[in-house]
Design goal:
alpha+beta; eight-stranded mixed beta sheet; four-stranded antiparallel beta sheet; 2 helices; 16 strands
Length: 299
Amino acid sequence: MNSLLKGNRLISQFTKQIIYFLFAGLLFICNPAKSQEEKSRTSKTVANMSLNYKKKDGVISVNVSVFKKAGNKRVAVAGLNTNLFLNEETTHNHKTGDGWLGTLPLDFDGKSSYELTSGAGNLGSGKHEFKFIVKMKGDKNYADKEAEIIIKDASITTSISTKDTLKMVTAKLTEWKEDGTEAPVAGAELKLSIKRSFSLFPFGGDLTTDKNGEVTAALPNDVIGEANGTLIVVARIEENESFGSVLVSKAIPWNILPKIKTENKRNLWSTGKNAPYSLVIASVSIVFLTWGIIAYLVT
């Protein structure tokens, strides 16, 4: 009887040990899988975000760009939504203009722009220094990210004068002070250009504002103006640490106009629609002859 009891006890202990080892093995197998799953849920791609400010002829726009690094390359982050705030991260305050301004969806290039059509006068309840905040939050693939810039409101004015036979362009850069007055900005790089069809033609070289916030340069005499008898002069600062990018354009009277062709003959140097008939007939004949030979050979 005692031997039977001892045998049962041994079997019971052996069974418990087997169950224990099976349970430990299951834990060992499941825990790494669980930790791997949790890791995949928590690990998100970290993106880089940049924010810049542009004021063009009084119209303000805030531009955001989001990208990630893939090796040594920058890859645009597209299709996500970012939120833009003015001065503080709250709901929009209709009285002061502070708070949430809008949602900026990123395009295929990872960029988006928000235009403040009201202009700087209605920003921040008459203030002339603004903080723009952009946030990307709550995406399942990308970690939360934010960027901010602090911008001082600046203005550029241009004037034209005549010196001997030259037309002189003077541009003045000013900023707003806390007491609501404007003051000249000295030591800033201010560029002068002429607007062309697809770009800006610079003149005057590298210019820096003097103590009066001004730069002056002579307009080239041989530059061709617009067909309406004007020339568009552009003064700008680009990606300034305090003021962002500010651009002002001004149309001035100009007497060097583009030549207007009164007749458009069929010449070798004409456009395609005005090519000589002989050239058109020869080209079409060569095309048909070539394809005709190919078709004959295939047949």
